[in-house]
Specification:
GO terms for molecular function: GTP binding; hydrolase activity. The chain is built from seven helices and eight strands, in the order αβαββββαβαβαβαα. The protein is of the alpha/beta class.
C-alpha cells in the first residue's frame, strides 16, 4: 500500500479538472478512516489527541475507545485520468465544528453520509444540512458490529427518501470505500440524466460524468 501511494503521489501537470466529494456524519463514525483507506496519497488530516477537557464537550457514548479526533477536516485525493482529479474532504463530526460544514459543502458534487447504526441519531444533523443545501448524497452504514437493522428500519430512523441509496461498508477497507464512492457517482449520474430528460438541464449536469467513470472497477482496479 505504501509503495502504491508513493508511486502515484505526484499530481500530473495536465490535471485541470478538480471534482469534490465530502464525507460527513456524526462523531466517530469513521470519516477519517474512509478518506485514509481510499486516498492515493498520504491524506492530510487534522487529528488531535483527545483530552479530559473534551469529555465535557464531546459525547463519547458508543466511542469510548476513541483517542483522537478531527478538528478541521480530512483531505485525500484520487486521480481519475490525465486531466481529472477527485478531492475527498472529511468533515469533523462534533457539534462545536459544525460551523465549518457550510464551507466544506461549497462546490461539492455530492456527499457520503457515514452512519454508525448503533448511534443513528448522530447522523440527523448531517442529513438535514445536506438537504438544506440541496446537496445530493447517499448513506453508508459503517460496520461497527452493532445490532442488525433492516434497510427499512434504517430508512425510517433517518427519514430517508426512497431515492437516496443506502449501502453497507467497512471504512477500513479500500475496496469497500471505493464501492461507496462508486455508488455516489452512479446516484449523481442518475440525477443528472433525470434532470436532462425533464428539460432541467444539461448545464446542471455533472461536468465530471465521464472522468468519474474511472472510479468503476473496470477502470480502476
Amino acid at each position: 500500500m505504501d509503495s502504491a501511494i508513493s508511486d502515484r503521489a505526484a499530481l500530473q501537470a495536465t490535471a485541470d479538472n478538480g471534482l469534490k466529494i465530502v464525507v460527513v456524519g456524526g462523531f466517530g463514525v469513521g470519516k477519517t478512516t474512509m478518506v485514509r483507506s481510499v486516498s492515493e496519497i498520504r491524506p492530510l488530516n487534522t487529528e488531535e489527541t483527545m483530552t479530559r477537557a473534551g469529555e465535557d464537550v464531546d459525547d463519547l457514548g458508543g466511542v469510548h475507545s476513541k483517542t483522537s479526533t478531527t478538528v478541521a477536516f480530512d483531505f485525500g485525493r484520487i486521480t481519475l485520468d490525465a486531466r481529472s482529479v477527485l478531492y475527498l474532504f472529511g468533515a469533523p463530526g462534533q457539534e462545536r465544528f459544525w460551523f465549518l460544514w457550510d464551507r466544506l459543502f461549497s462546490g461539492t458534487l455530492g456527499a457520503v453520509v457515514l452512519v454508525d447504526t448503533r448511534r443513528l441519531a448522530d447522523s440527523w444533523y448531517a442529513i438535514d444540512r445536506l438537504e438544506h443545501h440541496g446537496t445530493p448524497f447517499i448513506v453508508a452504514c459503517n460496520d461497527f458490529g452493532g445490532p442488525l437493522h433492516t434497510e427499512q428500519q434504517i430508512r425510517e430512523a433517518l427519514d430517508l427518501s426512497p431515492d437516496v441509496p443506502l449501502v453497507e461498508c467497512d471504512a477500513r477497507d479500500r475496496s469497500s470505500s471505493k464501492y461507496v464512492l462508486i455508488t455516489l457517482v452512479e446516484h449523481l449520474h442518475a440525477l443528472s440524466v433525470a434532470r436532462a430528460e425533464g428539460g432541467g438541464a444539461s448545464a446542471a449536469s455533472l461536468d465530471g460524468d465521464q472522468p468519474l467513470a474511472a472510479l468503476t472497477p473496470e477502470h480502476n482496479p
